[in-house]
Amino acid sequence: MIAFALGLSGVLTVLAFALRFGGASLVRTPRADALHDAAEGISGAALVARLLDDRASLQPSLGVVHAALLVTAAIPSAWALAAEMSGPALAGSLFALGAALVFLGETVPRSLGRNRPQGPAYRLSPLLWGAVRIGRKATDLIPEEDAGSATLDSDDSEELELISQVLEFTDGIVREVMVPRTDMVTFASSDDSDRALDVVLECGRSRIPVTGDDLDDIVGVLYARDLLTLFDTGGEARPVSKMMRPATFVPETKKVSDLFRELQTKKVHMAVVIDEFGGTAGLVTMEDLLEEIVGEIVDEYDEEETLIRTVADGEYIVDGRLPVDELAELVGTELPDEDWDTVGGLLLGLAGRVPEEGEVFHLDAIVLTAERVQGRRVARVRVGPS
């Protein structure tokens, strides 16, 4: 009987380990990556994407089930120890049991999972799915506070929103906030300062990466301040390769909070983001990181980005980055959003490939036309009634 009790405790501890390991990996997985992997046919990715659709409920739901597993695992082990020991020996053994359960069921798996997004979550997706469903039902049993006493004034709401943004900032990774490589402005190392100045004045960027052979070969960063200094002193045109400064490189899985401290320490304002293969994934600036906490930072020189433009009654031109739910609200109809977040992703899903410019897709009461396709990205879509 004692052997059975210890075995049961072991099984429950293993389940708690797996749940915490997979849960830590799950919350570190961007939903866009899960959708992409699901489209590639990777097992478990589609289920993970569905779980991440309601990210806010994941940790409470998983936490309830995980805590229940650890508590339940402790009961038979404590009974077995009490049957064999007494006095100080029992007290010491119970303390060691509690420490072992916390270490094996919480600390170790959480540390391992946080450093391994996607993979563990995909493999353990059935367990996570079941735990989240059970956890949500359990949390629904907790009585809510009286509506009157739970009402927050505007100051409290703003403070809670700021706290929430800070917590998300702490847990976020660079890939979630970076400017993707498709939207990067760069110079070639063979360009001269005259052309570089024209580009800087046109795009309004203060720091622009310099490439060597291709976009995956970032050799430095050119500062607009250095260009303006050369222009002000009347110096002759120079190759940008002679004026650029060293670039800072960071992995796309680096925590946003760690990068923020690193940029502060190095006194730089921009980093080039690289993927696991060493290719350029995008870039991130100090302003991008601050906007994660305080929201969009706009000055008098920024032009408001328009994602929706009305061209006729019931007909629109929308940016491919427009969220699908916003388009659904605009046209007053439900649109599928299980496997994509943006309108561009919707067209990729409908076509099953990169659509051609001018290609038309009929979806319920609307017609979607790929107005502009840049490389593998749907940049602009015309939306109209069928």
Task: Outline the secondary-structure elements.
Layout: H1 2-27, H2 31-39, H3 45-52, H4 58-84, H5 87-114, H6 119-123, H7 125-140, H8 147-150, H9 154-171, E1 179-180, E2 187-188, H10 193-203, E3 207-211, E4 218-223, H11 224-232, E5 249-251, H12 256-266, E6 270-274, E7 280-285, H13 286-294, E8 308-312, E9 315-319, H14 324-331, H15 343-351, E10 360-363, E11 366-374, E12 377-385
Parallel strand pairs: 2-3, 5-6
Antiparallel strand pairs: 1-7, 3-4, 6-7, 8-9, 9-12, 10-11, 11-12
Describe the structure.
- The chain has 386 residues and is an alpha+beta fold.
- It has three domains: 2-140, no CATH class; 179-294, CBS-domain (Roll); 308-385, Uridine Diphospho-n-acetylenolpyruvylglucosamine Reductase, domain 3 (2-Layer Sandwich).
- 51% of the residues lie in helices and 16% in strands.
- It contains 15 helices and twelve strands.
- The protein has helices at 2-27, 31-39, 45-52, 58-84, 87-114, 119-123, 125-140, 147-150, 154-171, 193-203, 224-232, 256-266, 286-294, 324-331, 343-351; strands spanning 179-180, 187-188, 207-211, 218-223, 249-251, 270-274, 280-285, 308-312, 315-319, 360-363, 366-374, 377-385.
- Strand 5, helix 12 (256-266) and strand 6 (270-274) form a beta-alpha-beta unit.
- Helix 1 (2-27) packs parallel to helix 5 (87-114), helix 4 (58-84) runs antiparallel to helix 5 (87-114) and helix 9 (154-171) runs antiparallel to helix 13 (286-294).
- The chain is flat and about 90 Å long.
- Residues 145-152 have low confidence and may be disordered.
